[in-house]
Amino acid sequence: MDEDESPQNFRTTSTPPHLARLLKRSPTRDADVVKAQAIDRRETFLQQRKDRLAQCRLKHNQVLVRGRVDIPAKLEALRESLSAAQAARNAIYAKIAANGSKEVAKVNFVVQQNKEKLRLERETKRLALELKQVEAEKRRETALQNRILRRRSASPPSRHSDNSESRDVVAIRRVSDPITAAILLQRFWRSKRTTRRAKNFLRLHLDYGTVGTVPFDVVADVIKGRDVVRCAGKVLESLHIVSSASESSSNAALCRVFLATFMIIGHPRDILMREGPLEDELIHRAKDFAGKFQHWIYAASQGRALCHAEVQTSWTSFSHTFDRWKQVDSANLLEIMIAQYCELDLIYQIVKLDSDPIVATEYHTAIRDNQLQLLVRIRGIAGDETRNLVRSAVIAARRKRLPKRTIVSKPKDIPAANDRHG
């Protein structure tokens, strides 16, 4: 070490005056030791800081390397997991669609089988009914012939005997006044026409006493026939209930009401939706009319002219009661059909949100066909108010029963009853 760089020279030459005064006051203090310790502490602190920085840098590099290696692998695994989940979901949807189509085909097959079975049963019952009616007609004709023979043997021939026609003809020939002759001729012609119409109606084998033993479907098919409606219209015309001068639509409606008496008396549980005072009154009026009509039709078929005023009065009472019942029944039926329409709409809304589009389309097609059938029946009762009634009911049902996230405040346009595609 040089002389100039010795501690003594450093102390004498480099110490400032204000510090030299203090050193002179503390001669025992070793400045070199203190300075060396400070330098060591500083170097130690700096070295530790460098070591920490190097360690942090190393960890940072390790994290970067690990991220460059692990992140692509994780992303690839996530992509594979998503692809597998999508494939599984598509497989489930395809399975659901296949099962749905199989179920639809199975249901259609069962429906066709049931239809064919019902058709065969109805045909069998119809044949059995025709045989019973033929036997009943034979027994009725035999009983009538025996009754006529007993009357002829017990009393002299009356004015309603078999030669009444010849006596009427003789009476017409003896009348010299042409107006009186025309009146007698018209009366004779109307009597024969009424007798012919009564016999034609009795050949239909529609009897209030036996209609309850015949199945409901068979009776419904019989009274829908054109021949039955035509014969009923002729008989009602003879009773002056319908008029030949009135419109055919109104006459057909009255004929349907008249034929409905057979259903009401024979199968009241199938016709009437509920039991109440109005239904009891309707059944009572129908039975009263049926008894008087049955008495009149048998007398008319034998050529005995009876007053039909009682039959007309009974018919008026029955028709008024029937109109009141029909209004109440139509309102109840309309409410039920609108509720069914809303239920079908709710089913489609739920299926549309929770199912595959293919399945939803199949459900929509089936539901739309049923809704169109309901609309046809609803329009037959409600008329022009059908669209407003159905729309308001659908909106209320959606707001009440669908979750808030699926509520549709306005349904799509309600199709017309004659539309076949939704």
From TrEMBL:
InterPro entries: Tcp11 (IPR008862). It comes from the Eukaryota. Residues 1-23, 145-167 are annotated as: Disordered. Residues 7-16 have a biased composition (Polar residues). Residues 110-140 form a coiled coil. Keywords: Coiled coil. GO terms for biological process: protein kinase A signaling. The keyword Hydrolase does not apply. Belongs to the TCP11 family. This is IQ calmodulin-binding motif domain protein. It comes from Taphrina deformans (strain PYCC 5710 / ATCC 11124 / CBS 356.35 / IMI 108563 / JCM 9778 / NBRC 8474) (Peach leaf curl fungus).
